[in-house]
Amino acid sequence: MKALPALAATGIGSVPFTDDQEAVHLILENLPEIPFWPQLAQKGFQEDMVSQGVGGLPLIHRDRERRLVLVNDALDRDAALTEFYEAALQEDLDVFSLSPEEAVGFYGLLKELSSRPADAPAFIKGQVVGPVTFATVVKGTDGKAVLFDYELNQAVIRGLALKAAWQAAKIRETGRQAVIFFDEPSLTGFGSAFMQISREEVITTLTETITAARETGSAFFGIHCCGNTDWSMLMESPIDILSFDSYEFFENLKLYDQALKKFLDRGGYLAWGLVPTSPTAPPETEEALWARFQSQVEELGRLGLDLPFLLNQSLLTPACGLGYLSPEKAREALAVLASLSRRARDWLASL
Asked: Distance (Å, rounded) from C-alpha 10 to C-alpha 109?
């Protein structure tokens, strides 16, 4: 695959807009190299990332009134799993598609790009709820999380992989390369009493998911975690991109400098979440964010990472999704991110 452009900017997923064309145009204007399709969470529960993971999975349904995704224990388990694995083994990706109702931004972006050359942009980014997060959030009527139902959890791993593969295939149909992030906010709870899963189980889950997603065609696959976690655990899985909130959690990632060096040496990319997205974050100027980024990169340089190499293997993003910001603040965040990308490239050129 063609290498990702150094220090290009992309996004995480959610936006605070209800008009898909407004969202798509803002994204293409500010993030022209790796635009992402926007999740329009304000339009309803169907655009929530966990809800978007449901289609094609066995025994799992949406309760729209309560805004929950649940296991339907009343269904015939054996029949549902048999039907699921028949589709999975045949790689019938349409079974795992996103409908226009639940991902209007995905279809809106593809429609907007249909009249443009395939190298403008050459990449499109999509996103899927991560298997650990989905299996942690979704529960049966007994309150037991899917994570602790081995049979169903294995189906979730395979099903979410195929949902990512469907997105990647649709992107490749446009002549562009796919970049797909699995969003794993639940991994911020790794090691706590609330997430009783071992390090080895996390690595195995992510490895199985990404391996299955790659079986249907080429794509870049990443993990986004918006809080602190065991970063070496993620870098030991076969991801191409590690996406983290560098605004809040750089000091934590820095502790894993040797794992990061190995990850970059094998061709991995580090996606820096430079622009804060929490509505309670203090106001930050572009100059302050730029100084913060430079200082963080230089800190990794002092730990033995070659700066030009590190920057060449870096992408820039918001810290997390923009969905909790006001539309005005989201527009500002995209504009600042675009400017930081330009400044970072000027810096790289000067080294």
From this structure: 14
Whether the pTM exceeds 0.85: the reply is yes
With contact defined as beta carbons under 8 Å apart, do 168 and 209 qualify?
Answer: no
Residue 193 pLDDT greater than 70, yes or no: no
- Region of 340 on the Ramachandran plot (φ > 0 left; ψ -120 to 50 alpha; else beta): alpha
Q: Are the C-beta atoms of residues 85 and 49 closer than 8 Å to each other?
A: no
Which H or E run contains 15? strand 14-15
Q: Which residue has the higher pLDDT, 280 or 308?
A: 308
Alpha carbon distance 237, 209 (integer Å): 10
Ordered domains of the chain (ranges, CATH)? 14-350 (3.20.20.210)
Give the model confidence (pLDDT) of 217-256 as tens digits.
999 999 999 999 999 999 999 999 999 999 999 999 999 9
Catalogue the long-range contacts made by 81-86 (C-beta closer than 8 Å, 24 or more residues apart). Answer: 81/151, 81/155, 83/58, 84/56, 84/57, 84/58, 84/155, 84/159, 85/155, 85/158
